[in-house]
């Protein structure tokens, strides 16, 4: 409900109001302005200035926004449905998908250097992928820091495997564009093939599951991305051990 810039704009007295509202939101929604002023040990004019900085025309509008925020927070639901994941795993059994993984495993094997990049939950998958591929005989590094420096002439002929659910993360798009400027090949693993990161990539693997958000957080399942990593890693082992052939 409160933005970072809004909170930074508060003075010391207004911070007292903010602190009280954060501690007792359910209580504040039913309080009159004088009651809140008494409890927070500030004047009613301080509360009105606080409301204005929060983007409200007055105390009544602020309480309405607070009420809507609390009611919306209580309506958050997370669907526990694995049918989409099962459907994706079934699709990966097709000859077309199998052939695509075979081709990409060879691309990974032939790359001079391999980096896996992502942010947030996708950054965790990138870290896991780098560890998994390294275990299969192809040394890889991961980048999960948005501002990690990636400008280097030594990146030419490198492969960058990018993980992003939405494919629209500004930080990850920044990494992709910088890597492309260095002559890197981009392989992206995203939820759809119509996102910006997929369009910037040389290769893309979409998996198509429902987006899920909990408040400000993306909690979309990462099972398809992890599955792709493990399938690619096992096919990669065919090249890093004794050459192409069954494991």
From TrEMBL:
InterPro entries: Homeodomain-like_sf, HTH_RpiR, RpiR-like, RpiR-like_SIS, SIS_dom, SIS_dom_sf, WH-like_DNA-bd_sf. Residues 1-73 form the HTH rpiR-type domain. Keywords: DNA-binding, Transcription, Transcription regulation. SUPFAM superfamilies: Homeodomain-like, SIS domain. Residues 104-242 form the SIS domain. PROSITE patterns: HTH_RPIR, SIS. This is MurR/RpiR family transcriptional regulator. The lineage of its organism: Bacteria, Bacillati, Bacillota, Clostridia, Lachnospirales.
């Amino acid at each position: 409900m409160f933005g970072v810039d809004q909170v930074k704009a508060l003075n010391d007295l207004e911070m007292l109001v903010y602190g009280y509202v954060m501690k007792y939101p359910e209580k504040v929604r039913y309080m009159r302005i004088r009651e809140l002023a008494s409890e927070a040990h500030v004047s009613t004019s301080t509360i009105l200035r606080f409301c204005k900085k929060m983007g409200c025309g007055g105390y009544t509008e602020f309480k309405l926004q607070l009420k809507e925020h609390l009611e919306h927070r209580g309506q958050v639901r997370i669907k526990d449905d694995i049918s989409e994941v099962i459907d994706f795993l079934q699709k990966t059994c097709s000859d077309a998908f199998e052939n695509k993984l075979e081709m990409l495993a060879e691309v990974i094997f032939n790359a001079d250097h391999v980096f896996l990049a992502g942010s947030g939950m996708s950054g965790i998958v990138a870290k896991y992928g780098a560890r998994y591929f390294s275990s299969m005989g192809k040394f890889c590094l991961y980048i999960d820091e948005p501002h990690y420096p990636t400008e280097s002439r030594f990146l030419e002929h490198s492969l960058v495997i990018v993980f992003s659910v939405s494919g629209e993360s500004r930080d990850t798009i920044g990494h992709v564009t910088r890597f492309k400027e260095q002559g890197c090949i981009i392989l992206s693993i995203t939820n759809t093939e119509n996102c910006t990161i997929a369009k910037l990539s040389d290769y893309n693997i979409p998996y198509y599951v429902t987006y899920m958000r909990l408040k400000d957080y993306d909690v979309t399942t990462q099972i398809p991305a992890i599955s792709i990593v493990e399938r690619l890693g096992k096919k990669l082992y065919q090249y890093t051990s004794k050459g192409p052939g069954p494991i």
